[in-house]
Write a structure and sequence with these properties.
three-stranded antiparallel β-sheet; SMI1/KNR4-like; Knr4/Smi1-like_dom; alpha+beta; 5 helices
Length: 165
């Protein structure tokens, strides 16, 4: 079976900013910032890929979700970027984690871990009862569960489910 590193390499995953080189120690206090424990498999990913990354061609990487958006949607979600440390604060995981809750934001119990070119996010659920599940968040929804759609039961399944169009 392919490792997560091999899977991401096969999909041409690379740092968003070529010159970014971050120390994984920057994530040591992430649980304190978000107020929840962080799944170990996601922390392992941050140790292996400490810089925000993207796939070479935006929109060409998708993941098939467990749930699909209402209407004429096939349950496939485009993935452009996975967040870690980044010199561009818009894509820096620690900055994203520190953002206050505001109208149109994701629910506070999820951590945004990636996005697509349409402004939607991929989120880790940090609540005890659904710890580690990965959701797609439709940015046109409010800061409640109505905009969350289950993509994978955990981060490893999410990465393993990534594929090119």
């Amino acid at each position: 079976m392919m490792t997560l590193s091999q899977k991401l390499a096969a999909l041409m995953y690379r740092p968003y900013i070529d010159t970014d080189r971050h120390d994984p120690a920057v994530f040591a206090n992430l649980p304190q910032i978000v107020g929840y424990p962080i799944p170990e498999e996601y922390m392992d990913f941050l140790r292996d890929f400490p810089s925000t990354g993207m796939f070479d061609v935006e929109g060409d990487v998708i993941v098939k979700g467990v749930e699909q958006l209402p209407g004429n949607h096939d349950g496939r979600y485009a993935v452009s970027m996975l967040f870690a440390a980044c010199s561009d604060e818009r894509y820096d995981l620690m900055e994203i984690a520190r953002r206050p809750l505001y109208g149109g934001d994701t629910p506070r119990y999820v951590l945004q871990i990636g996005d697509n070119e349409f402004g939607n996010a991929f989120c880790l659920d940090l609540r005890r009862e659904s710890f580690g599940k990965v959701y797609y968040w439709d940015h046109e929804s409010g800061a409640d569960e109505t905009g969350l759609y289950l993509v994978a039961d955990d981060f490893t399944s999410f990465v393993r489910g990534l594929d090119s169009k």
